Amino acid sequence: MGEGNLRFEISNLKEETVTGVRRALLAAAMGVVWAGAAGAPFASQSEAQGKQERRIVAVNVVDEQGQQVTGLTAEDFRGKFGGRPVKIESVRWDAHPRRVVIFLDISDSMTASEPRWSLALEAARQLVAQAAPETSFALVLFGTKIAQRVEFSSGRDAVREALGLLGSESAAAKGFERTALVDSIVEGLELLGPLQFGDAAFVITDAVEGSSKRKPRDLEGALLLRGVRLFGFILSYPPRPSMWPPSASSGPGLAPGGYELGEDPAGALGRVAEASGGSWYAVISGERFRSEPPGYWYTDERKAAALAAVRNLKNEMEQGYRVEIELPWEIRETRAWTLEAVDRSSKKLKGIKVVYPRKVAACGGGKP
């Protein structure tokens, strides 16, 4: 399909006027708990509208090159929930200032390999350097536990400074032999405070989980409840499907000790990202099997593709569609739904991907 078939004329949509009460109800209906002055959550919009339930979700539509498809309207989307149609109430392009928490894995499995660690640092630094001036950043460095936090109030320069001070030796010297990946992300989400539409977490890691008490489903639940999208830049190990047998106790996509199965480079983290409405990119390295500790290398072509992916993920975090939907009934537990981009004949568009929260949680949490 040519580019002309993917691009649509942008409609001149007027900004809707929303009262404070209406905004609060919509935020709660999206699964985000906003606290009032007394700390009490607002009622969800589903309670105000009977059995139907409205949500506002962040959506990106990208082509095969990772470029965003713009100009779509409500007629260009089709959703289903529990086999029943989802009403697309409104679709508008949204590029208001975003907040992004960068989670950088500084455990030994990341820092022991200079090529891997250098690429991880370069990805983090380029994300901050290339972002729009209005985008705000916070930073979490983690291994067995969170080692350092840089809050939004400290400003982008403080994040740049913290990343600039990192090097292979200084990070590895912290001695984080294992990784509390899930625990660190859940705890780091607190930096967002009162939540805003479009909030995102950008995780740079090898997806090796070694010591978290929480499970991937706990992370998924925290993201869905808060309305935060997770994006992953995953420096994956070479495929070695026979290295570890599947283990139910390790969680989906993970093998004993936390090492991912070679057939699934993103593991559980990738599935959580997709459930939350985010994306991920996995960089598969070559390996020098005879080195001790193992060394990893990346061709110039692979590094260039990886950094281009960082730019694409940045674009998805910073702008996209704000889609208001009406679900056919009130949600009492977390459930999956589907959203597709369609042509004027209601046929699914080929050659593009719709990035959206693939699960919706009940307001107030519900069952995972």
Please sum up the structure shown.
This protein is of the alpha/beta class and 368 residues long.
Mean pLDDT figure: 78
Assign the CATH architecture of the largest domain: 3-Layer(aba) Sandwich
Note the run of SSEs as H and E. Answer: HHHEEEEHHEEHHHEHEHEEEHEEEEE
Instruction: Identify the CATH homologous superfamily of the largest domain.
Output: von Willebrand factor, type A domain
Pick out the low-confidence regions.
1-49, 240-263, 288-295
CATH topology assignment of the largest domain: Rossmann fold
Counting DSSP H or I runs of 4 or more residues, the number of helices is 11
Strand order of the largest sheet: 14-2-3-12-1-15
Biggest sheet, in brief? 6 strands, antiparallel
Overall number of structural domains: 2
Q: Tell me, what's the shape?
A: globular
The first-to-last residue Cα distance is 39 Å
Percent of sequence in beta strands: 15-25%
Task: Tell me roughly what share of residues is in helical segments.
Answer: 25-40%
CATH class of the largest domain: Alpha Beta
**What would you report as the Rg, rounded to the nearest angstrom?**
21 Å
Secondary-structure content class: alpha/beta
- Which oligomerization state do the chains in this entry correspond to? single chain
Number of strands: 16
